[in-house]
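Q: Joint fold for the lines below.
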Amino acid sequence: MTTALMRVRNLDKRFDTIHACRNVSFELHQGEVLGVVGESGSGKTTLLRCLSGEMLPSAGTVEYDVRMRGLTDIAALSEPERRLLRRTDWGIVHQNPRDGLRMNISAGGNVGERLMAVGARHYGEIRGEAVDWLERVELDQDRIDDAPSTFSGGMQQRLQIARNLVSKPRLVFMDEPTGGLDVSVQARLLDLLRGLVRDLHIAAIVVTHDLAVVRLLADRLMVMRRGEVVESGLTDQVLDDPQHAYTQLLVSSVLQP
Amino acid sequence: MTVATNHNGGTESGYNFAYLDEQTKRMIRRCLLKAVAIPGYQVPFGSREMPLAYGWGTGGIQVTASIIGPDDVLKVIDQGADDTTNAVSIRHFFQRTADVATTEETEDATIIQTRHRVPETAMKEGQILVYQVPQPEPLRQLEPRETECRKIHGYAEYGLMHVKLYEDIARFGHIATSYSYPVLVNGRYVMSPTPIPKFDNPKMDSFPALQLFGAGREKRIYAVPPYTTVKSLDFDDHPFSVQKWDQACALCGAEDSFLDEVILDDRGRKMFVCSDSNYCEQRQAAGYSNPAAAADIAAYQLALQGEADA
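A: Joint structure:
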């Protein structure tokens, strides 16, 4: 049995009177994709922000297998260490690409930023890597010098993925990666994500309210309601044979075309 | 009306020596000490309202006013020249409020307040160069959040600065930033030497004089102590380089100075002259000239004559 990449124990997050996450515990291993589903306001995004170090939990621990150090409580890391982790070993794909991209910097500059942040100082090599990554996320190389503000929503989302994966992270956090995209673009993006995650053996935590997304991407699934994990297990198992009443409601609410 | 001499020696009555009150000067001096102790770090200070608009050198004037004494000799440069509006009015300001001696000679000055240029004549130990800074934050165009900028400086996460240079090369094929070119000071802080041309960047490295920077509107002071390393950022395959001209100064024939382009007429004639007027005049006085540009100078003088007559 290998050690976990991330281990969460009894995570609790309160905002004043609101109890956003209650007693969440799980383990995530290298290359594993964990889906988190639930209705809006169920604490999914808060959970993700606590995991990615953007917020600190009110109680409980989030441990991550920091390179050369082993499982470490991320709250015990210093702020520069957490920031370093966030821009090298982790990737964060925001729901709105505007939050994750620099809109007035060219696509190549966006992809190259993480490389330059860890000390790449050879323009030709940075550019080569950017071209390579644009190709991998199926963006036209001719658009490398265009600002993301001239891109379509789907292209911006793919660029955001390239920008995150260029540093070869071991864990990627995704908050509604397909939100706001039309169905056919969603399908292509999911297909691309699935391929990249499998090829690069990246672990991912995907927060979404879209069951189709987790069905395609996630190995395991957690269902959240009012800040609590009400059911968890293998994705197909949970979706095909939901045990908890809320999960049953969620699964039966999906429109069948 | 008689102009009374105040007790500190200024010729203008009703003002303290060098305009600012002593407590303000004290506050600014404390910030200057901190700035010198941490080369390149931007120290916030309580910038005061000055009797001229932001953008006209209020930061530099406050720094100069805080360090100037009755025995100092002041030189003021605006765009390299001693005789442009900003230079003349700031020099006049200190003549009136501090009654100090002023000069146009770089060698004779103890304090030089400058906008846009480092003098061509080498400065020496004991002199102080005060820069007027419009935008102290090198990251401003890339990161609009001030809180985030402070963290980037604090943790020395300067990858973003290279994104700006990357953008230049992607767009223009070379690093097209020609002024406010970012530098790494003492191997730690990235600093904007605004707004001097990058031509002057190499001069700042191991500079024998003290360099002080004041930004009035942005309320920041920073400094580079004498003999500190100042390295211009670049890429391995696109190294830092300075502007070059394929001709010499039309007036003094200098080939090693920063040249300004002067338009002579509306038919495209132009000439290049030293931006540092003091350096150019010294060379002309020493007998240097540029015979190749004699025709241009004649045309220029004719044009000036025409303007005067009209």
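Q: Anything notable?
A: DSSP finds ten helices and ten strands in chain A. Chain A has a mean pLDDT of 92.
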